[in-house]
Amino acid sequence: MEDDDLQRPYSVCTRDDLKERITKQIDVISEIFCVSNSDATVLLMKLRWNSQLLSERLSQENKKLLTESGLKPVDVTDSNQDLSDSSCDEFYEFFDDVDDDDRDDVVKVSTPFCSHKFSTAYWSKYLEKNFFSVEKTVDTISCPHEDCGASVGRDTIEKLTVNDKNSYDEYVLRSYLEKSKRQIKQCPAQGCSYFIEFHKGTDAEEYGLNVVCLCGHNFCCRCSLETHRPVTCNNASDWLSRDLQKLSEASDKSLSFLWIEDNTETCPHCLSPLEIGLGSLDSKFVPCGYCSGSFCWECMHSEESHKTESGTYGDCLEPVEQDPLWNVEVVDTSCLDRWEACEAAMEGAQDDLQDFEDYIIKNPDSLKEQDVRIVREGLMLLIQCRQVLKWSCVYEYFHTEHETSKKEYLQFLQDIATTTLQSYLKTLQEETETAFYAADALVLCKFRHSLTTATSNVGNFFYHFIKTLQDGIVDVKVKSYDNVAGPYWLCDRCTYGNSWLEMKCKMCCETTTSKLNDLSLKWVSKRSYQH
Question: Which residue in 118, 157, 167, 529 could disulfide with 380, CB within 3.0 to 4.6 Å?
């Protein structure tokens, strides 16, 4: 385990790492209590991988535990019972496509604790249907024969097909993960095979940790959604499952209706909307495409209303004042627009990281491992910060609906944060380019110091940015202007509540970035990305 892993409350492991750990646990039980690895696996699965409890029971009630676990020989009436026996026919009604059950040359397998023999084809179908393909993992796999409690372990599986062996290994792993589901979680990214293991004493459900997998995917360990600081899991779930789609549909509908209102007129006969500009150059009267009624495009009265008693057409009448047909509520799309812009920026940061990884793979000697790590951490920090900005738009949607001053202040902070990231990205690109062509150790030393310092400053800034939102933006204390005797005066620019002893606004008249960095707590040491 690396030093960084010791500082984090979690580590990332592979499927092979977990299988190796399972094998070691099985070997220890097998060696101490002189049982086969196959029996040790069955016992550990039955007692939910609690080695201490298993040790106590094997020491105190060995025979009873082995009997309960199906690891003692089962008495059978006919020790030569096999697939040709009529008593076994009932087990094959589910597997009609097993055609070689009655052949004498078919290999037939039983458990070490009973003599109920079945073909390998039958075993495969039985295991797949009842154990390997089902969601719930049972403690013990028993013999297919009715009322036979003999346990099926690895020694039986080894006599079957390679696919059965692989499926059994996955089945054992599932059993181990079910026991450890509060401490070990699989990365929810599609196609990712990594697992996140929380260190001893860390409760993944209660800690509310935001995790970065080695595949680059950021997610919340509580709800398995993508990292959504500074909003809660419920807010994130509501936004993704309901509000985002609703806001998008409302925005599209609003824009559509506004176009109709600006570009159409209403037929006086059937009240259908007609696109402006359909009038003819030869005649000011046009027929409606829906009802065929003719009307004047200039005053919107019918053609008949223009005729005089002599049958000729008179001047236009006073234009009709039409009531609006579309009572459309214009949707405020600023929050949605910011979300989409931040999401695009985050995807761009992810592309930058992928481009860097591809370049390092093709040019492994272009940077030292230490320098690659520094640049990778900077690029991953950019992704995390872009993600924070994206979800701060959701915070704005849920928490500042009736608090205009806080909403304005939040947007002010978002703008500063965006500028900070743009400056950091420029620094990251320039310093990395310098490192690529640096031949002098002094230049590389300067690169490491400069980039590490810049990364630390950005981490501090965003830590305080998140904390400010999670605390409810308490810096903005809205007071009435009428209360002149109160302890605050409100800045007209940012609405920050200042003490009467202050001659200038403390929030927007000082260098805000510097102020926030000074007040920040250390985030880089807590940042949740994985090398």
Answer: 529
